[in-house]
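S.,

As promised, the thymidine-5'-triphosphate run. Input:
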Amino acid sequence: MTTQAFLCRDCLAIGKIANSIDRCPTCGSPRVLRHPELLKLSVAHIDCDAFYASVEKRDNPELAGKPVIIGGGTRGVVATCCYIARQSGIRSAMPMFQARKLCPNATIIKPNMAKYVGISRQIRAMMDTLTPLVEPLSIDEAFLDLSGTEAVHRAPPVLVLARLARDIQNVLGITVSVGLSHNKFLAKIASDLDKPRGFAVIGQAETLDFLAPKPISLIYGVGKVLTETLRRDGFVTIGQLQQHPDEDLMRRYGETGARLARLARGQDVRRISSTREEKSVSSETTFNHDLSTFEPLSTELLRLCERLSERLKAKKLTADTVTLKLKSTGFRLRTRARHLMIPTQLANILYETGQQLLAREIDGTAYRLIGIGVSGVHNALQGDPSDLLEPAIARKAAAERAMDHVRGRFGRDAVVRGKLYRPKTEPTGPGPTDETEGKAR
Ligand code: TTP
Ligand code: MG
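Predicted complex:
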């Protein structure tokens, strides 16, 4: 009779169990985790289940057992929906009219961001008591590194995590799913395997076999463009990448190819870095004359994005959230933010994102100030210069770094983008430029 390490997610009993038994020997619960590496793994990803919807259901017991959609705010799309509503095919980002058609009896609730942020902070506080290495990824998910904490907790990471999931449910009334593995890439994949109220483990030994049949789009940073390029070249599953010589992947796709080769084998060296002191960096400028049309505002925006990018590069930082700030002549402030899939330090990406946000704010309002800022700032020293992951971005990154190189040697004005070129005698320029750094929240 062979035995395996087990943990009961209900009564938290831990020990060895015969392979033939699938219930907890202490409490009889079927919610038992078994895995040969269960007591060794220490990198986790935790993600709340149907986050906004779970919070609303918690706060209104009449909604239990009913389909609930959160959305219909300013953008007219679904933010999320509960798992019951998902059975009708509703998904995040779907237009509300389509969601209503799919599930006419769903209760629709407008998002209450202040409430969700409050709960997110409470979850974060609970995580912070377990390890200093908590890295939030978004409002409802975070990585935790519990390596070396066993002596403090007198319990292996798997037990600490199961207890955390149980406590979050008991104290805050919402459920989370946990992924436990040996690196970030796999922990994040694992947390999605068993949702909702899940707990999935991916060990070292099964990493290759686990990844082999999966689509390449499972690899983080592999977006639509890269998936299509790889598909045209005959790569559809991660296994096909595993089988392919690394040198050839590198020859075809450069640095991206080297990353694909490593990630296809489940190798990910990124560390979990706490962003407890989450910083924001921003640049803003006040105009001498109010501006209301896209072109001149966009020119100022480009100048600010270049400055901001310069500072991020100098400090070896990347950021995953871009915020545009506009102040009207009546001193009304508008801020619009966008989360990036791939953190960046590139002026080009900051500018593209800023322009998209700006375009929506051109409605005849006269502005006296424009600013661009980033938050979700990470150290780019170790881990990924993530802008290399997508070939389309990698090309922009290469062009921008070439420009930086020339500027580094011959001074900032050695290369001036056409849009920013201005004869020295030009009478109207921007007013003072303010650059700030501070806490994001
Ligand atoms: P997710 O974790 O992607 O989704 P979820 O928590 O609702 O569901 P799951 O169980 O699959 O994890 O996002 C967290 C929250 O972010 C989500 O509750 C609502 C918000 N959100 C949006 O507002 N728009 C979006 O397009 C997505 C994907 C999420
Ligand atoms: Mg979630």
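Confidence is low (pLDDT under 50) at residues 425-429. The chain is about 35% helix and 25% strand.

- D.
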